[in-house]
Specification:
The chain has 226 residues and is mainly alpha-helical. Helices cover 66% and strands 0% of the residues. It has 11 helices and no strands. The protein starts with a helix and ends in a 15-residue tail after the last helix. The relative contact order is 0.16.
């Protein structure tokens, strides 16, 4: 799961929502700083309410990822997405298409949720605007035992740039995807990848109720089954 899917169920709890985003923020700012359940869990009962909420949000993220990545629907969607990428990246050795199948499946779930819930992305960003980025950075240092010195700056940029809005447009999503490719030192994706993202979004729409099953995800955020 990605930012939007993790956070939209908890928009009445700003610091909790920030907690759900912390592992994704850290994957951008410093992949060496990790949120591990044994270290995070004690902070759920912290005397500081903000830190307790941040910890609870991180635990929610970790819980969501465990069930989500274990679903048959996610495995199948990743496989289908990888096949679509192989049609564009015919000379690829396989590793990159597997990686792309995984991350784009998650990004496209956010896109489908945004399309299904107009206006909710604004509420998501407005909720996070109530969070103190320096508090989040201090919390992460306390939990991980090492600093993530640029985290507060990244959060400010996340709120200012609002790149999640770009997921609605396949060409803009490709631009964001190529930023990820740069961070992991892989070659940029060619323009025909836009078609892969469009076809992939159709796949995710058809499977969204299996990807986010009702026993784990509130059905009110999903498209109505006709």
């Amino acid at each position: 799961m990605n930012y939007f899917a993790h956070g939209i169920r908890f928009l009445d709890r700003p610091d909790f929502v920030a907690g759900t985003a912390i592992p994704d923020w850290l994957s951008v700012v410093d992949r060496r700083v990790r949120m591990r359940s044994p270290k995070v869990r004690p902070f759920v009962d912290h005397v500081d309410r903000i830190w307790a909420e941040l910890a609870a949000g991180v635990m929610q993220h970790l819980h969501d990822d465990r069930w989500f990545h274990g679903t048959a629907a996610f495995a199948e969607t990743c496989t289908q997405m990888s096949k679509l990428f192989r049609g564009v990246l015919s000379d690829d050795g396989g590793h990159r298409t597997g990686f792309l199948g995984h991350i784009t499946a998650e990004l496209l779930i956010d896109r489908v949720l945004m399309e299904t819930n107009p206006g909710l992305l604004d509420k998501y960003y407005n909720t996070l605007s109530d969070v103190d980025p320096q508090q989040v950075q201090s919390f992460v240092k306390a939990v991980a035992g090492k600093p993530a010195d640029r985290l507060a700056e990244l959060i400010a940029g996340f709120l200012r740039i609002r790149f999640l809005e770009d997921y609605i447009d396949p060409e803009k999503m490709l631009y964001r995807l190529n930023q990820v490719m740069g961070r992991v030192k892989l070659d940029p994706l060619p323009a025909p990848t836009v078609k892969v993202l469009e076809e992939g979004c159709d796949l995710v729409r058809l499977s969204i109720h299996k990807l986010l099953p009702s026993e784990n995800f509130e059905t009110g955020f999903l498209p109505t089954i006709e």
